[in-house]
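TOKENISE THE FOLD
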Amino acid sequence: MEKLGLIAGNGRFPILFAKGAKNNNVPVIAVAIEGETSPEVGQYVEKLYWIGVAQIGKLIKIFKQENVSKAVMAGGLTKGNMFSSLRNLRLLPDLRTINLWYKNVKRRDDQTLLGAVADELLKDGIELQSSTLYVPQLLAKKGILTKKNPTDREMEDIYFAVPLAKEIAKHGIGQCIVVKEKVVLAVEAFEGTDEAIRRGGKLGRSDVVVIKVCKQNFDPRFDIPTVGLDTIKTLKESSASVLALEAGRTIILDIEETLAEADKAGISVIGIGASRLTIDNLL
């Protein structure tokens, strides 16, 4: 069977993807990022290589020597590490990464950067695939996913906030917004989803509503929003009462355990349809 490349970032997603591929008898060649990727991913792949965060040239060389023509990105990168590596020769950015960063990328948002990496891979005959290829069961389904139903007030907050969240995501600012009683408490930016939730929870004090959506030009190769057990922990600590996710376009890591923890915490998790924004089709 043809080998599949895995560009493994941080978090649980690379591990779950590697498990899914192994369960489908797909041999995986994984390239992990030093200081980011959990070594656990090595238990589920045929080979595991390690590179620095800014070594695209080395990544491509590994895939070519392994005859990999299709690959998947799974997991994130700590943004602070990404920026510092390109300004610190000690962390050894290679020439291909330097050219990409300074010559080929005009905007520095996630979608532009990852799209540029995908284009760079394609120049060498390596095509990125959807990151849900072997884990479709992790995608959020439409409807109420937990035992607790949202209140009428919380549903009004969702309906109010979804268009705002989509607009913010369209401009590459962030994918998460925190609201209460139709007041915006926090918008995700560089700091990430968990910190945005904490800020919103601190301001709202209790029963805040969190909405997480995907970007307008959704690209399943690397644009899929992700939540998991850590997200539920942050929601609980921040006294959030609802988490609304875009159905079919959001990954719930360790989905059964995550939804069970949400039930224990009394948090509603909802899969919404955000393509046509009417109150009837949100759920």
Summary: Confidence is low (pLDDT under 50) at residues 276-280. Residues 176 and 235 are 13 Å apart (CA to CA).
